[in-house]
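Input/output pair, single chain:
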Amino acid sequence: MIKLQQTGDPKSARRIHCMGILFSSLILMTMFETFGDAADAVLPGSSTVSDPTINSPADPAAAAVNNPPLATGTEPLNPDPNANPSQLSPGADDKTKLPEPDDYSTSPFTEYGEFNQSHDEESDALFFQFGRFFGLSLGLGIQAVDGNRGLLWQGGFPLVDFKVHYWFDLNLALNMSFYTVNHFFVTGSGQTNVSMFKAGLDLKYYFNTKNLSAAISFASPYILGGVGSYNKAEYAPTVGSAPTSLSSVGVALGGGLEFTLFPKKTYLEVEGKFNYVPFYDSGSSIYAAAGIPNLNGNFWTVTTSLLLTW
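Output:
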């Protein structure tokens, strides 16, 4: 423009000025249209439609295919139509968020245990309520001898019996028993005194009398078996010889009745035993002249004792 003004051509200067104004207007219009399209694409509720098939209400199925729902993070991208529904939507059936059900199936872990059965628990409760733990008894009795030794020996009364008792439960008990008794026999050389002593252990089993008659339940019957050490010492005072002593291990079997005087405190016990004791002199024929070929024989005891328990 400066050059035109310098040349002095006013018409050419006006034409160039009008063309500049028109060109600037076109540029501004183009910029406004570009900014308007960008705003319609970003702002919600825009009326600009880029694809008429997306929002077409005439075909909902096509709209569902063309506009699938947004993923929530729990659905698989490509679900299998034959898959388990819990696999398609794991959030709806998540067992890790549910409480574990009670498992009543048997296994070595559920079966094992000291108090896992109701029967054992009931037995223990009854034992602690009605049972006994320890006891001491003192009694008197008699001992008889059979066989050839019984033909020779006499006496056997009184037998003094002492026991220590321990109960495992209502039906099973262990006794530590001691007794002493004196016998004698007479030969041509005079009288010989015999003193016997026994120490042993007996295992006792009480019968369950819950469904029996009242009389049997009151008697509380039991059986027992045990082993012990038996010692006998013979002394002939008229001869003046030293006492001779023999010892042997024997077996005892028996039974008895236990009557309640004061529950869990005092009882009256009546007991009978068979004792097999193979003494060394059982085959001796020293008294064959008196018609006794040997000294074979068994020992029978009957005792009555007063039992105190705790």
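The first helix runs from residue 2 to 7. Residues 129-309 form a domain with the Porin fold (CATH 2.40.160.20).
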